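Quick one from the shared queue. A colleague (R.T.) flagged HhH-GPD-type base excision DNA repair protein as missing a structural entry in our internal table.

Convert sequence to structure tokens.
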Amino acid sequence: MTKSDDGKARTVRIAQQPDADALLGRSPLAALVGMLLDQQVPMEWAFSGPYTLAQRMGSDDLDARAIAAYDPEAFTELFTAKPALHRYPGSMAKRVQQLCQYLVAEYDGRAEAVWADAGTGAELVKRLNALPGFGTQKAQIFLALLGKQFDVRPAGWREAAGAYGEEGSHRSVADITGPESLAEVRAYKQQAKAAARAARSR
């Protein structure tokens, strides 16, 4: 990936912004960083972040080695400059840098190596779960995204992705293919939050 087995970049419409989506479709690291940023901000904001970050670094792509070696204070400034890349730019800058440092140490700086040779969905979700900033839910959502939109489909990937891997669902960013599906996913998330609040108040 985000090129699949045929080596072609994928067309995605997650950020709802052509240049940002083009980067997600051709850059494995951009997709991973977008997933990392996808919490407590709108999904489009999170997944447009990698493109804005690349621009601020003076590049047309993200490079794990460059980010890992970046001065931490200067890297934080890339996130905090207006418009900020996240609601919590300082902590997210640190997480992105930790993610890239991990990729350099464990995968020679190649984000796609996380999934390129994974034999099963269970193995892949375990690798994703080990990434800094990724918990079980985020790992399952990203696995579903890989399977549904990038044709990265090791054996048992849908099962390993849990409910997020279900065909025809609208639960997460993995199911966003345009404005309509974005609205459906957003509605699902709002319903889930409302149900959780109701459960807590009982």
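The radius of gyration is 16 Å.
Residues 105 and 159 are 29 Å apart (CA to CA).
Added to the table.
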